[in-house]
């Protein structure tokens, strides 16, 4: 229904962004809200409208490739929009695709809500169906911006966003010590935490 929306990001929370377009504030759920920044610049968000009997949810992605992978993931039994967002939040869909092609269940079960049964279903449903679409995947810039010492809430914002994606307090506690050694912005903490979480078995 909506392919994309262009507007100004006026709010960034752990779960969603608000995109002002022509005086209308669109609440958009995204894999990593902190990949977007509050600026006066016009930003383009690729969208997907998820319709259920009790709610309509607008989901947004920085790239068309992210959205197409999301659409593939939610066709798998056992993966809903929240689970697909958690997988995409890692910022490395090429690794997810590679794991599916290699039938690497150990990698796939590291995502929140993905057990062995769901990982096996992902492989059965998607193996051999993703390569042509995702030969080149552009993801948000991996560079991070250093914060001044006064801006010290970035790590806590990242932790809240990871909790919203379904990671447990136990999992986050394991990586928090490594995060505390760094001085990053919220997106940087998100990316680092996700790299660390995906190394855990």
Automatic annotation (TrEMBL):
<dbReference type="InterPro" id="IPR003583">
    <property type="entry name" value="Hlx-hairpin-Hlx_DNA-bd_motif"/>
</dbReference>
<dbReference type="GO" id="GO:0006310">
    <property type="term" value="P:DNA recombination"/>
</dbReference>
<dbReference type="Pfam" id="PF07499">
    <property type="entry name" value="RuvA_C"/>
</dbReference>
<dbReference type="GO" id="GO:0009378">
    <property type="term" value="F:four-way junction helicase activity"/>
</dbReference>
<keyword id="KW-0963">Cytoplasm</keyword>
<keyword id="KW-0067">ATP-binding</keyword>
<feature type="domain" description="Helix-hairpin-helix DNA-binding motif class 1">
    <location>
        <begin position="106"/>
        <end position="125"/>
    </location>
</feature>
<comment type="subunit">
    <text>Homotetramer. Forms an RuvA(8)-RuvB(12)-Holliday junction (HJ) complex. HJ DNA is sandwiched between 2 RuvA tetramers; dsDNA enters through RuvA and exits via RuvB. An RuvB hexamer assembles on each DNA strand where it exits the tetramer. Each RuvB hexamer is contacted by two RuvA subunits (via domain III) on 2 adjacent RuvB subunits; this complex drives branch migration. In the full resolvosome a probable DNA-RuvA(4)-RuvB(12)-RuvC(2) complex forms which resolves the HJ.</text>
</comment>
<dbReference type="GO" id="GO:0005524">
    <property type="term" value="F:ATP binding"/>
</dbReference>
<comment type="similarity">
    <text>Belongs to the RuvA family.</text>
</comment>
<keyword id="KW-0233">DNA recombination</keyword>
<dbReference type="InterPro" id="IPR010994">
    <property type="entry name" value="RuvA_2-like"/>
</dbReference>
<dbReference type="GO" id="GO:0009379">
    <property type="term" value="C:Holliday junction helicase complex"/>
</dbReference>
<dbReference type="InterPro" id="IPR011114">
    <property type="entry name" value="RuvA_C"/>
</dbReference>
<dbReference type="Pfam" id="PF14520">
    <property type="entry name" value="HHH_5"/>
</dbReference>
<feature type="region of interest" description="Domain III">
    <location>
        <begin position="150"/>
        <end position="201"/>
    </location>
</feature>
<keyword id="KW-0378">Hydrolase</keyword>
<keyword id="KW-0347">Helicase</keyword>
<dbReference type="InterPro" id="IPR013849">
    <property type="entry name" value="DNA_helicase_Holl-junc_RuvA_I"/>
</dbReference>
<keyword id="KW-0238">DNA-binding</keyword>
<keyword id="KW-0547">Nucleotide-binding</keyword>
<dbReference type="GO" id="GO:0048476">
    <property type="term" value="C:Holliday junction resolvase complex"/>
</dbReference>
<dbReference type="GO" id="GO:0000400">
    <property type="term" value="F:four-way junction DNA binding"/>
</dbReference>
<keyword id="KW-0234">DNA repair</keyword>
<dbReference type="Pfam" id="PF01330">
    <property type="entry name" value="RuvA_N"/>
</dbReference>
<keyword id="KW-0227">DNA damage</keyword>
<dbReference type="InterPro" id="IPR000085">
    <property type="entry name" value="RuvA"/>
</dbReference>
<comment type="function">
    <text>The RuvA-RuvB-RuvC complex processes Holliday junction (HJ) DNA during genetic recombination and DNA repair, while the RuvA-RuvB complex plays an important role in the rescue of blocked DNA replication forks via replication fork reversal (RFR). RuvA specifically binds to HJ cruciform DNA, conferring on it an open structure. The RuvB hexamer acts as an ATP-dependent pump, pulling dsDNA into and through the RuvAB complex. HJ branch migration allows RuvC to scan DNA until it finds its consensus sequence, where it cleaves and resolves the cruciform DNA.</text>
</comment>
<dbReference type="GO" id="GO:0005737">
    <property type="term" value="C:cytoplasm"/>
</dbReference>
<feature type="domain" description="Helix-hairpin-helix DNA-binding motif class 1">
    <location>
        <begin position="71"/>
        <end position="90"/>
    </location>
</feature>
<dbReference type="GO" id="GO:0006281">
    <property type="term" value="P:DNA repair"/>
</dbReference>
<dbReference type="InterPro" id="IPR012340">
    <property type="entry name" value="NA-bd_OB-fold"/>
</dbReference>
<protein>
    <recommendedName>
        <fullName>Holliday junction branch migration complex subunit RuvA</fullName>
    </recommendedName>
</protein>
<dbReference type="InterPro" id="IPR036267">
    <property type="entry name" value="RuvA_C_sf"/>
</dbReference>
């Amino acid at each position: 229904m909506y392919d994309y929306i262009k507007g100004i990001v006026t709010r960034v929370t752990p779960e969603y962004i608000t995109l002002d377009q022509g005086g209308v504030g669109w609440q958009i759920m995204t894999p990593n809200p902190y990949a977007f920044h509050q600026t006066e610049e016009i930003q383009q968000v690729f969208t997907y409208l998820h319709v259920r009997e009790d709610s309509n949810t607008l989901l947004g992605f920085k790239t068309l490739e992210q959205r197409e992978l999301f659409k593939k993931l939610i066709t798998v039994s056992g993966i809903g929009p929240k689970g697909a967002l958690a997988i995409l939040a890692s910022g490395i869909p090429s690794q997810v695709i590679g794991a599916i092609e290699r039938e690497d269940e150990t990698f796939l079960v590291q995502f929140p809500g993905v057990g062995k049964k769901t990982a096996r279903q992902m492989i059965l449903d998607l193996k051999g169906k993703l390569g042509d679409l995702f030969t080149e995947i552009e993801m948000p810039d991996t560079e991070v911006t250093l914060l001044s010492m006064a801006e010290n809430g970035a790590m806590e914002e990242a932790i809240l966003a990871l909790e919203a994606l379904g990671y447990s307090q136990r999992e986050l506690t394991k990586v928090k010590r490594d995060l505390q050694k760094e001085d990053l912005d919220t997106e940087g903490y998100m990316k680092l935490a996700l790299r660390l979480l995906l190394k855990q078995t």
